[in-house]
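dumping this here before i forget
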Amino acid sequence: MRKNDRFYLHLLQECQIEEPLPTQALMAILADWETSSVFLRMEVAHTLAVVEAEEALELFLRVLLNPKEDAWLRETMTWDLTIWGERIPGDLLLTLLADPEPAVCAAALEVLRERPSQTIPLEIVLPYCTHEEKYVREAAIKTLLATEQRVPPEPILAALGDPEPQVRTAASYGCISLVELFGDQIPLEPLLEALRDEYPPVRENILGALGKIPLRIPVEPVAAALTDSTYYVRCAALETLSVMGERVPSSLYPILQEMSGSDPSPQMRQRAIRALLAVHGMTLGPLRLPIIDFTLEELGE
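structure:
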């Protein structure tokens, strides 16, 4: 980064620029792709968006839509479209979704996710669930979930088998919403299969989803998760057992008692006690997490 760039970045990030804002000077920096660094132009573009500099909008869009511009700059400027709000033409996001640069496409999906749920076009988003880039697929899954009652379950469930853990994590988290929205319409098989996923956050999310349908799920896979190698997955298993109530067999009581008294994690002990109370028919209040020191296992994960 050049010396002048560092000066302007400091001015933009650390100082309060008094009115009137030097909009023309900032626009000159944004337009200067030859001598101004990408980092400086990013900050300038963001500043112009934050102050809603109307006279800079045309330049902002021209830079954003120029495929010869730096991909990182165009990606961050796409994120800034949420700041401009209704000033942005309605068809601009569709143009950005078709952009050959995957990072710009993914950013456009994230902006689309912030729109009112009923305005998100499913037919436009669905093809991106099978995009070759993992971060585009992840963004597409999250955008589909933002459609709320309109979300189609099939692509979310299919993404549980994605080769990339970040995509599977997004899909497994979405399963919590799916079972809340559609209940018995969501098949158990893909959820139970995902409970064996190698990536701990996926297993944790799936246990959270299963906890939304405690009368439908088998006890055995939830009980098996009590011995998971990752502590927060074990915590999620205890939370799910807590809502299963009398369906929890008495053979698990000694395990829960042991965990409530001797588990090295305070979070585990607290949840084990709650599970014991719940399976004995007591109504639980909201979970209140204590101020605790993390164990070495928790810090390591």
